[in-house]
Amino acid sequence: MIDNTIRLYYQNCRGLRTKTHEFFTACANSDNDVICITESWLQPHVNSSELFCLDSFNVFRKDRCDSNSRKKEGGGVLVGVSRKFKAELISDIANTTIVEDLWIQMSISKDEKLYICACYFPPDISCDDVLNYLDSVTSFMDDHGDDTFVFVGDFNLSDYVWSPDSADGDLKPNVISRSPYTGFSDFCSYNSLSQFNGVRNSNGKILDLVLGSTKSIGVCRSDLPFIEEDLHHPALEADIRCGFDMRKPFKSRSLYKYFEADYESIKEDLSKVCWDDILVSQDINECVEVLYSVLHDVIDRNVPQRSSKNEKFPVWFSKQTINLIRDKRRFHVEFKRFGDTRDYQRFSELRSQCKTHIKEDYNKHISTIEDNIIGNPRNFWSFVSLFSKNEQIPHVLEHNNKTLTDDITIVNQFSGFFSSFFEDPDKPVIYKRKNNNNNSAIFFNDISEAEIAAKIASLDGSKSSGPDLIPPFFYKFLCYQPGETFAHNL
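RESULT FIELD:
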């Protein structure tokens, strides 16, 4: 079934620095596509990996600092976008140090974009500052008239009273005579923006707004906030319907099940290979290609495969938690498809169970690392590294007047760029096999077969595979075979 809805979560958090643990586990349980946070109160020393699993989300932040705000403490906006979508940061739309905003562009189609703006208006903002900001935004929207805009954030319009306007679910404000409120009403009217949030805070007011240039937005109060709600700012969930699925196409891939391989047949097939007849090139790169061609052919014939579901879960998730998450997603899809309230009830129950299990798994993971820090310090430093890293692969790369958004294409672009700095990357490397008498070749006779075999034998069979996707224990198996050994041919 095509999913044409973007699920957005919003919360004014009133500070995340002391709530990273709670936010991280809640995010791991979330099925939202976009997560918008205002008043994050974050500072540069807090890594995004402490809040999000970066394998699942691209994270954009605008922490409050001297260059973008008149104040030093508090503030800050954050947007996390699922890696299922192509998203990039748009900067310098309003160029203001008063309103804190973060603009994200998502591709709806080849010619149409969805712009999501997470923003925070300080309560002491002046009338002129509001109007100047709205004028700048209007100019940008005029230049992108065919695109869709969604604004979410804390607008601090405490004097506004919102009432239903139509059956579409949008609301209109009472007419306010004094500025800047009239300017805000004019801004919404001119840009055909509707307000969809009707959830009131403890004082009966609506400070957090969800504005959209489309009528296809539904907003409700979140029944499972990421962190404890502030009395003035209920957590919100919004469904933005786009007409068709904006998610990146699913790319399935096959994985080899090496533990179920037919190693007797592998041994027999390799014994029939006459390496001296096929490794005849003097170009080391060509010989490596031939070697891998033979290995992959043998692997394809004797190692079963399975289709990858392309799902990434944190290493500390238990199997029970993963199964609960899959069941939760299944019932959510069923509810969206048929509208049966029993499916939603079951979905809600599973979501609560997932939240509990994720917290238990995470706490257990932390306890295990702490209890074994002396005997196994490597796990501790792996954990520190995991929560200290920032994004490894940029989600958008512009090079040679091209905009690249696919991870593989970006990695290949980096590879091509850096390889161009080598003196002569196309010049073949000449090597010398022991039975060749060409004196112009480079000799490797000082590296013995025993040394190669010893190096392969020293590989840690419990480690994962390298760039060739062949696990270390497979190479160790090849070196232990009788007759002409694999090490001999290397």
